[in-house]
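Posting this for the archive.
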Amino acid sequence: MIDSTKKRRDRRRARLTAAAAACLAIAGLTVPAGASADAGSITPDDDAKRVVYVEVNSNDMANVADYTLEGTQRPAFDIAVIFAANINYDTATQSAYLHLNERVTETLQDAENQIRPLQERGTKVLLSILGNHQGAGIANFPTREAAGAFADELAAVVEQYGLDGIDFDDEWSKYGTNGTGPANEYSFVYLVEELRERLGDDKLLTFYKIGEAAETTEYDGVRAGDLLDYAWNPWYGYWWVPETVGMDAAQLAPGAINLTATGQSTAAAFAQRTADEGYGAIVTYNLTAGDHSGYLSSITEPLTGLKTSYRAPWYDVDVEAVATCAGGDVKVKVTVVNDDDAAVDAEVMSSIGTRTLTGIAPGDSGTAVHQAKRGATADGSVRVDLTGPDGQSSIDASYEAPACG
């Protein structure tokens, strides 16, 4: 069964809310006055998501993994979208079907190099579904059954290639071509319902808000926005709020940036405005090969307080910190799990102590224990500096300090 509206809404974590006019702004619009992003108060869960579309006909998805936030192992991009698979039309069966062109197929089949490195770093990888000039689109399924059949195909490709979800883009469908019907009021809602039922809540469904589907997001009491995770502004170089009934500011990306065409100052202004007005995401397009960390820093600094690093050392290491009470003092146990192919050293630092773990072998773990004595205060944060064959990188972790004493 599909989740109820209340359950779906409760699933999301409301972070920040803000109201903004849903209208186009000129690309160089001055950022309105407001509190700037405070790096000291930002946490990964509160950051606006950085989204990137990669045109795989000309670029590799693997480029996304080249970027991390400076001094950390956090990815510069939270969501990466493979652009694009297509919704095609079979004139013999008079039905829509999923089409993967040669480069999309190559990308999916090379998941070990093109997709898994991104996911290991914490980036969600989605597949974009785009019209293909054949009359089939996400807004003109003739029946729920037809929408369900297409949802079956989408769910199958997500499962087969270990993807994190689907992105909907209603461009280039050319409704009416090949004798297809016009857009209708129920098609997109049916598709989102059917796909959410198949994928569950663990996968992302996002909406590049353009085309006929943008005007048909409610039907028979069901709102697509209650089942979608994010909606993006499709107009690169402009600020426009993709308001969708059922979605709040934390799920919207009004700032849209073409990484090869939008001026860096405009990109920085959009990022700052996203932070100031409490929107949940910013969308970028056309990441190409090479070092673009300077440009990307103008986006990540306002949103996270951190610059972007290019091909910085990265190790497949997890850190878990747990605090308990011991003799009236807070005791923090920090476990470093090494899933990388190389051995690493880990310097574990907190407000109540420092300890070095040497030579954690691949597949092994090490544990450091810090105890707050002589008035030391446990502030809930841990930093682990990792040193391995590729150099040094850092991981931040947090814990909840209990009231001891």
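The domain at 5-310 is CATH 3.20.20.80 (TIM Barrel). The longest helix spans residues 144-161.
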